[in-house]
Amino acid sequence: MSSPFDPAAVIAKFIDNVAPYDPNPEADPVAMVGVRTALGEGVFAVSDHVIRAMCRALESYHDPEDRGTCVECGSRRLDENLHCPDCGRLHGILGQVIADHARRVAAEDAVPSEDRA
Known about the structure:
3 helices; alpha+beta
């Protein structure tokens, strides 16, 4: 079991990691970032450099649960096997193999039995 994140501590650590690279460390803060959770709270005065770095970090974040979008129904809830729980479609290589097999079986079933011999 993992320990819970303390968002205030994470933000403070981020600021500590980014601030040394601020080209204008004496400039007045341009934003106040505050967070309050059951684990604690913090209000941080941040420079333009830090707030830009924070925005870039948030924009580039990719959730590990994001496995793409279902091409069938548009759902964004593909599971770890690339199965869409909303429409049932399988994605990826396994999904392609199953879809190809299903098309072959359907094509065989469409041919009258006397033509299959």
